[in-house]
Protein: dITP/XTP pyrophosphatase
Amino acid sequence: MGFEVVSAIDLDLPEPEETESTFAGNAILKAKSAADATGAPALSDDSGLAVTALGGAPGIYSARWAGEPRDFGAAMAKVQRELEDIGATDRTAKFVCALAVVWPDGHAEVFEGEVHGELVWPPRGDKGFGYDPVFVADGEQITFGEMDPERKHAMSHRANAVKKLKAALLS
Structure:
């Protein structure tokens, strides 16, 4: 598409603290920080797992539920425990991704993608990362943790957000 992509890591940019209350807000915050630092358009994302019965939690705190260093086994156990503590039988959930593009003049656009499904226990599969071993997408029989990465990436929340971003860039 004629773009040269350079990562924030390659540019040694500091990672701003995620202080917003939404995926879109955090994605904009991170992209704005990079655009301000470089004077170039910047792309960033924020994403996570939103569990219906938990009011959308862990949501923007999905990685933080895994602690430092990241332990998503503990995070998945926390989700299960929280659901059991409230006696929830609803296991529906979705992965959410917000992609933000911010231009040096401050103009920002956000493209959001979701993939809906339900949670299963015990965790299954060792592919992917994060909450993938407990998430079965609608219409599927296996978890993202069991799924071939190419198949998962074609239907993921990030793929859905990128499709919207590409459509906007090409229009």
Q: What stands out?
A: Strands lie at 42-51, 92-102, 108-119, 135-137.
